[in-house]
Amino acid sequence: xxxxxxxxxxxxxxxxxxxxxxxxxxxxxxxxxxxxxxxxxxxxxxxxxxxxxxxxxxxxxxxxxxxxxxxxxxxxxxxxxxxxxxxxxxxxxxxxxxxxxxxxxxxxxxxxxxxxxxxxxxxxxxxxxxxxxxxxxxxxxxxxxxxxxxxxxxxxxxxxxxxxxxxxxxxxxxxxxxxxxxxxxxxxxxxxxxxxxxxxxxxxxxxxxxxxxxxxxxxxxxxxxxxxxxxxxxxxxxxxxxxxxxx
Length: 247
Description:
- 22% of the residues lie in helices and 36% in strands.
- By secondary structure, the protein is an alpha+beta fold.
- It has a domain at 74-239: Aminopeptidase, CATH 3.40.630.30.
- The strands form two sheets. The protein has an eight-stranded mixed β-sheet with strand order 5-6-7-8-9-10-12-11, sandwiched between helices. A four-stranded antiparallel β-sheet has the order 1-2-3-4, with no helix packed on it.
- β7 (130-137) and β8 form a beta hairpin.
- Residues 1-58 have low confidence and may be disordered.
């Protein structure tokens, strides 16, 4: 017995097929591009994660988060699947981050050269605080984009962070991932998105401006590199909705 769902997103028809054996198959133009098995599903009806550890059971993941899938076609015709991170992504995430040279790592906020740091993002996710969106080609993760939600009086805004594999840069993937995060932010009724660009990556400012981000200010000597050198950071925002004003 099969249950089918057809979704039309961005002019692409994607078919979900749920089988009696608890397999969720994601088809795109007749090709299986992703599969969720019984390891990932607790029940077919609720589409809740059957977690591999306690951290995933405690994660604030929703049905909408779990089933989100978007196939994008890059400028050169390459097809990439955008989806939330899943427990089986651990090795693929390590393969994405561990080869990064020091010249790039020194501008990152976390020690991505430590397998425990990268592995924790997969093993201990908290979708209420961070929505992680990976870009997948075959069995390889070629991009990681995250939406970092704030708490308390800052709960109306979130920060965007994106990293791409070297061979997938300047191909339009970063823009597609950024647009997907913007859609997720709107679904969460956020007012404002923000991004911080360190001065050596000034070319990213134009990319952010292309999707609507505006430069608000530049913080001098705001980021300290491992060797102690200080660099400037450009703070940019994208307004998603205006505050309701009544008299």
